[in-house]
Structure formats: structure tokens, C-alpha cells
Amino acid sequence: MSLTLPPSSRTPSSIPTIKGSFSHTLSVFVTMTTHGSLLDSYTFPSVVKAYSTLCRVLHRKSLHGSTFSCSVDQDIFVGTNLINMYGKHGEIGDARKVFDQMLQRNMVSWTAMVVGYVTIGDVVEAKKVFDVMSLRNVAS
Fold this sequence. Notes:
By secondary structure, the protein is mainly alpha-helical. It has one domain. It is built from seven helices and no strands. The chain has helices spanning 15-34, 44-54, 57-69, 76-88, 92-101, 107-119, 123-135. Mean pLDDT is 81; it is low at 1-17.
């Protein structure tokens, strides 16, 4: 069974709705933190994606710091989303630092790192990461 989006959700007019969804995610996150709710590895991937789309560098760094205080910094899904967030904004040094500190990686985290390098135009480094991925027996 294949999942396809209705045509109306794939048009430029759907972008405000998507941004509204990310804004809602951030609003819920702020409410959770102000009420002392426990933030975990299920909370952070959605919040990282929303921050990646809507927030400035300082906010992204603050969110990354929160992963340490909530002890989810080594979660593979949180780490991969952080790599994606930093790579999307050309902050490849930060993306690489997260990647290098991950104790466990999967194909998605490796791919996020490759895409980060490609995003900034560093295809040489992207190829190096890809080649190491193959040596580590990660399916490519």
C-alpha cells in the first residue's frame, strides 16, 4: 500500500499550513517545558524538526543543549535530527560534531551527514563519509 499526499498538500499554498504545524509543535514544547513535563527521546525529534524550519541559530544551539540536560543526547533519532538540522543550515561543523559523538549510527544518520556536506557544496567530504559508511558495512 503506497501513501500519497493529496494534491492540495503538495502545493505552495500548503506551506503556511506546514509552518503553522511547526509553530504549534514549538508552542506545545514551550508549554511542556514551562510546566515541568518530562522531555524524552520521543519529544525531541519533532521539536528539532520544527526548530530547524522556524528558528535561528541561538535557538537551535539552545535546543541541542537541552538534549544533554534531558539525557537524550545519545538517542539515535535525536542525534540524526540534530545532524539534519545543522546540515540544513550549513552548520556542518556542528553536524559533524554530533555525528562523531554518536555511539550508534544507522543509514539515516550517515545519509544526513552526507547530505549536510552536499548542501554546503563539499562533495569531496561527502564522498569520504559515503566511502567510510560502506567500509562500516552500512547498506548503501
